[in-house]
């Protein structure tokens, strides 16, 4: 049986990677930490993650193969602390976002328990290519 995908149309040549990106995005379904994505300019975006209790040293932001990875891991709490109720999540997390080609990270800041990651879509240079036809 033939597998039909988003890019299986014969006019969409070379877009197989788009299918992989859609599959990779669908797998990142956990809801912690909560986040917002905002458009803050014509070509600028901001991802905000709620990371209460995490310090700058507890967080890492990496980009590999157009996948933005935000990871958080807190140091072990002091042993003498006794919680009567622990409602603030202190678990480690990994949250990923797939970036379109040309989208770059321009900065990140941690303020009031919110991690803000700024992104910008760089304007691509338009290239017009003329192909010469040769006789064979």
UniProtKB/TrEMBL annotation:
- The reply on keyword Secreted is no
What sections of the protein cross the membrane? none
Entry protein name: Molecular chaperone IbpA, HSP20 family
Q: Which family does it belong to?
A: Belongs to the small heat shock protein (HSP20) family.
Q: What's one Pfam family the UniProt record gives for this protein?
A: HSP20
UniProt lineage: Bacteria, Pseudomonadati, Pseudomonadota, Alphaproteobacteria, Rhodobacterales
Q: Which CDD domains match?
A: ACD_IbpA-B_like
Give the InterPro entries listed for this entry.
A-crystallin/Hsp20_dom, ACD_IbpA/B, HSP20-like_chaperone
Write the record's keywords in alphabetical order, separated by commas.
Stress response
| Ligase keyword on record | no
Organism, by scientific name, is Pontivivens marinum
Query: PROSITE patterns from the xrefs?
Result: SHSP
Q: Domain SHSP, which positions?
A: 26-136
- Top-level taxon in the UniProt lineage: Bacteria
List, alphabetically, the Gene3D superfamilies matched.
2.60.40.790
Record's SUPFAM superfamilies?
Answer: HSP20-like chaperones
């Amino acid at each position: 049986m033939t597998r039909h995908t988003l890019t299986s149309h014969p006019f969409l040549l070379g877009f197989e990677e788009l299918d992989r990106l859609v599959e990779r995005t669908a797998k990142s379904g956990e809801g912690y930490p909560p986040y917002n994505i905002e458009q803050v300019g014509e070509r600028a975006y901001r991802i905000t993650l709620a990371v209460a209790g995490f310090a700058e040293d507890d967080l890492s932001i990496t980009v590999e193969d157009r996948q933005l990875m935000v990871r958080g891991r807190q140091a072990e709490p002091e042993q003498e602390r006794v919680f009567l109720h622990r409602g603030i999540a202190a678990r480690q997390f990994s949250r990923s976002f797939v970036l379109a080609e040309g989208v770059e990270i321009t900065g990140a800041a941690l303020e009031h328990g919110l991690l803000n990651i700024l992104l910008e879509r760089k304007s691509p240079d338009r290239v017009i290519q003329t192909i010469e036809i040769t006789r064979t």
